[in-house]
Write a structure and sequence with these properties.
Helix 3 crosses helix 15, helix 5 runs parallel beside helix 10 and helix 5 packs parallel to helix 13. The strands form four sheets. The protein has an eight-stranded mixed β-sheet with strand order 6-7-5-15-16-17-14-18, sandwiched between helices. It is α/β, with parallel strands linked by helices. Helices cover 37% and strands 20% of the residues. The structure holds flavin-adenine dinucleotide (FAD). It holds the Pfam family DAO. This is D-amino acid dehydrogenase.
Length: 496
């Protein structure tokens, strides 16, 4: 591998913004773990053959478990229109930006490939969460303490920002202000959780450590031994939240065209965005397409889509709920490298997400089932919460988040006239932050740059080209899985 790097690919890697050291380190790691990655991460699309499991895994939905196509679908764009700002993508970011621009009195057009909530905004776990659980080690490598502190504040402030929007737009999205816990499932995870809690504290994040006795006093399921508890934030119904933003945007006069993908755009003082049967001309374009952005020709060497799945059980009976405990319904994530998440919903189902992450070759985002991920989530759910073994699954789904090599948000303006704005790189933490960043970009377009938006500016490292990119990312993910599996084996051994 290093011989190859010594010649042409090394030049490509360095041109792409990676130092030789980081590239070699990553590529070497990839070389070690890629065979495992191929075995463990390939996105299999055929269901499995065993009765109960098969029935569960066939609950696949092409949409997230929280949304349906709206009854009042807005017509697709036909013909040529103009606006002050055109926004592509109607998730939390695009709709929050549209609302703020409309408040400023701008004429706003939003074009959405499907409908709001089709993307990650309708597929997530619904944690309205601040800075806990961020990838601090990656994020803080290339920036100073002051900027890192501002970025932690950005994530933490976003929680209050969104809570304010529920009130402002009268959005009932089953929000439970429960706080949330980053829990250990094995004593070996305590050191890492405490260390990361300390880094968060040094940068202004407020949380407390819960020991075994405190976890049991809260009535949390016994698999979760100890953890970092952040009292702010909680869980919500993301479908109701994104549809609430959609309603508010329509009420505010935003012109929303659904079933209307951006196909291409021309740069210049007036940008022309082409759609299948029309066009929008505007002096400003904002990309709020997150994981789908690289396919549209922007940020293709800065961010990648990562494929993440979720499963949801059928509603639990009263008796099952009683024996589960968990009376305060805190959102739980684990201290694994690829976190596991568990939460109760208002409909008394349990949703579990993440555990396995996959990068699809060529930054593609196919809307297909990923049975391997559902199976792993299901097995894991039964291990953490054995009471659920007899509870069938109601839904399985998959979505895409976008991530940069440094796990930091990717926000800025590009084009000859610096009139093409973008936000991507949510890294799977976007319910709060993507909402607030959309709003802040709209403020910037309106002429005031919020300090927390300025704090996000930094040089995003470039990614190597394919096939190195695929090998590197899936190799690193497989390495993380290996470490996580080791912890999980210890948990199983201890229980045996
Ligand atoms: C399984 C899963 C669990 C998650 N859990 C959490 C969580 O608990 N908490 C948390 O904070 N974050 C979580 N996330 C991340 C969070 O959902 C995202 O960060 C957030 O929804 C991103 O919002 P967005 O508006 O930037 O992007 P999206 O919601 O993805 O919106 C982008 C929109 O662009 C549209 N689009 C794509 N191409 C085009 C085009 N050519 N033209 C026009 N429109 C286009 C898409 O249809 C989509 O509606 C999770 C994500 C996943 C997948």
């Amino acid at each position: 591998m290093s011989t190859v790097l010594d010649t042409k690919q090394e030049e490509q890697g360095e041109r792409a913004g990676m130092t030789r050291r980081t590239f070699v380190k990553g590529a070497a790691a990839a070389a070690v773990v890629v065979p495992a990655a191929v075995a463990m991460q390939s996105a299999r699309t055929e269901p499995v053959e065993d009765g109960k499991e098969r029935a569960d895994l066939e609950k696949y939905r092409t949409l997230g478990g929280w949304v349906e196509k709206p009854d009042d679908m807005q017509p697709a764009l036909e013909g040529d229109v103009s606006a002050d700002v055109v926004i592509a993508g109607a998730g939390f970011a695009g709709l929050s930006a549209a609302l703020e621009l409309a408040r400023q009195g701008a004429k706003v057009v939003v074009i959405e490939r499907e409908f709001p909530g089709f993307g990650a905004s309708g597929r997530n776990a619904g944690y309205l969460a601040g800075a806990m659980g961020l990838e601090y080690d990656l994020m803080f490598k290339g920036i100073g303490k002051e900027q890192a502190t501002q970025i932690v504040r950005y994530y933490d402030d976003a929680v209050g920002f969104v809570e304010g929007k529920f009130k402002e737009h009268d959005i009932d999205c089953e929000y439970v202000q429960s706080g949330w816990i980053r829990a250990g499932v094995h004593p070996s995870q305590e050191k890492k959780i405490r260390e990361e809690m300390q880094i968060g504290a040094e940068h202004g994040h407020k949380s407390e450590f819960l020991d075994q006795a405190q976890m049991r006093a809260r009535g949390l399921p016994p698999a979760f031994l100890f953890g970092e508890y952040t009292p702010t934030g909680g869980t919500l119904h993301p479908g109701k939240y994104v549809m609430g933003l959609r309603r508010a945007a329509l009420r505010a006069g935003v012109k929303l065209y659904e079933n209307t993908p951006l196909l291409s755009y021309t740069e210049g003082p007036v940008i022309q965005v082409k759609t299948p049967r029309g066009s929008v001309s505007a002096p400003v374009l904002m990309f709020a397409t997150n994981a789908y952005t690289p396919q549209l020709g922007l940020l293709a060497n800065k961010v990648v889509p990562l494929q993440i799945s979720a499963i949801e059980t059928e509603p639990l009976s009263k008796a099952q709920l009683a024996s589960l405990g968990w009376p305060r319904r805190e959102g739980i994530i684990t201290g694994h490298y690829s976190m596991e998440s568990f939460r109760l919903t208002a409909r008394n189902t349990i949703i579990s997400t993440v555990k396995r992450i996959h990068y699809p070759y060529g930054s593609k985002t196919p809307n297909v089932p990923v049975y391997d991920q559902y199976r792993e989530l299901r097995t894991n759910l039964h291990e953490r919460l054995p009471i659920l073994k007899d509870v069938a699954l109601r839904h399985c789904w998959t979505g895409y988040v976008s991530a940069a090599g440094d796990a930091l948000p990717v926000v800025g303006a590009t084009g000859e006239n610096k009139n093409i704005y973008y936000t991507a790189g949510c890294s799977g933490h976007g319910v709060a932050s993507q909402s607030m960043v959309g709003h802040m970009i709209a403020q910037q377009i309106g002429g005031t740059e919020p300090p927390l938006l300025a704090a996000l500016q930094h040089n995003t490292p470039s990614l190597p080209p394919e096939p190195f990119r695929w090998c590197l990312i899936n190799g690193l993910l497989a390495g993380a899985n290996t470490l996580d599996d080791r912890v999980n084996r210890k948990v199983r051994d201890a229980a045996a």
